[in-house]
Amino acid sequence: MANLTISNRSAADTPCDALVVAIVPGESGATLAPGHGLPRKTVSHLKSVVADLELAGKVGEVTT
Protein backbone atom coordinates (compact mmCIF):
# COMPACT_ATOMS: atom_id res chain seq x y z
CA MET A 1 0.00 0.00 0.00
CA ALA A 2 1.32 3.43 -0.90
CA ASN A 3 1.87 6.10 1.72
CA LEU A 4 1.06 9.72 0.96
CA THR A 5 2.82 12.41 2.96
CA ILE A 6 2.04 16.10 2.76
CA SER A 7 5.01 18.31 3.57
CA ASN A 8 5.99 21.95 3.54
CA ARG A 9 9.56 21.01 2.54
CA SER A 10 10.89 22.11 -0.82
CA ALA A 11 10.13 19.53 -3.51
CA ALA A 12 13.74 19.81 -4.68
CA ASP A 13 14.96 18.65 -1.25
CA THR A 14 12.46 15.83 -0.73
CA PRO A 15 13.53 12.26 -1.50
CA CYS A 16 10.55 10.47 -3.06
CA ASP A 17 9.40 7.99 -5.69
CA ALA A 18 6.60 10.21 -7.00
CA LEU A 19 5.67 13.86 -6.70
CA VAL A 20 2.17 15.32 -6.97
CA VAL A 21 2.27 18.83 -8.43
CA ALA A 22 -0.76 21.11 -8.30
CA ILE A 23 -1.66 23.34 -11.21
CA VAL A 24 -4.02 26.28 -11.06
CA PRO A 25 -5.71 28.48 -13.65
CA GLY A 26 -3.51 31.42 -14.63
CA GLU A 27 -3.90 34.51 -16.77
CA SER A 28 -2.61 32.72 -19.87
CA GLY A 29 -3.66 29.14 -19.10
CA ALA A 30 -2.82 26.68 -16.35
CA THR A 31 0.35 27.17 -14.33
CA LEU A 32 2.09 25.50 -11.39
CA ALA A 33 0.66 26.38 -8.00
CA PRO A 34 2.88 28.80 -6.08
CA GLY A 35 5.30 27.51 -3.45
CA HIS A 36 6.32 24.31 -5.26
CA GLY A 37 10.05 24.84 -4.65
CA LEU A 38 11.06 23.06 -7.86
CA PRO A 39 14.27 23.87 -9.75
CA ARG A 40 13.93 26.29 -12.70
CA LYS A 41 14.60 23.63 -15.38
CA THR A 42 11.96 21.34 -13.87
CA VAL A 43 9.42 24.18 -13.82
CA SER A 44 10.15 24.96 -17.46
CA HIS A 45 9.67 21.31 -18.43
CA LEU A 46 6.44 20.94 -16.45
CA LYS A 47 4.99 24.15 -17.89
CA SER A 48 5.70 22.78 -21.37
CA VAL A 49 3.93 19.51 -20.51
CA VAL A 50 0.94 21.40 -19.06
CA ALA A 51 0.66 23.40 -22.28
CA ASP A 52 1.07 20.32 -24.52
CA LEU A 53 -1.70 18.51 -22.61
CA GLU A 54 -3.89 21.63 -22.80
CA LEU A 55 -4.62 21.43 -19.08
CA ALA A 56 -6.87 24.08 -17.55
CA GLY A 57 -6.03 23.79 -13.86
CA LYS A 58 -9.71 23.49 -12.96
CA VAL A 59 -10.95 21.86 -9.77
CA GLY A 60 -11.32 18.11 -10.28
CA GLU A 61 -8.99 17.93 -13.29
CA VAL A 62 -6.65 14.95 -12.78
CA THR A 63 -3.94 13.79 -15.18
CA THR A 64 -1.58 10.87 -14.64
How far apart lie the N and C ends?
18 Å
Q: What number of domains? A: 1
The SSE order reads EEH
Q: What percent of residues adopt helix (DSSP H or I)?
A: 10-25%
Spatial extent as radius of gyration? 12 Å
Structural class: alpha+beta
Unreliable runs, pLDDT <50, ≥5 residues? none
Major sheet: order of its strands? 1-2
Major beta sheet, specifics? Answer: 2 strands, antiparallel
Number of helices: 1
Q: What percent strand? A: 5-15%
Mean pLDDT score: 87
Number of strands: 2
- Overall shape: it is globular
Description:
Helix content is 20%, strand content 12%. It is an alpha+beta fold and 64 residues long. It has one domain. It has a two-stranded antiparallel sheet with strand order 1-2. The model has no long low-confidence stretch (mean pLDDT 87).
Task: Write the SSE topology.
Layout: E1 23-26, E2 29-32, H1 40-52
Q: Quick gist of this model?
A:
The chain is α+β, with helices and mostly antiparallel strands. It contains 1 helix and 2 strands. The protein has a two-stranded antiparallel ribbon.
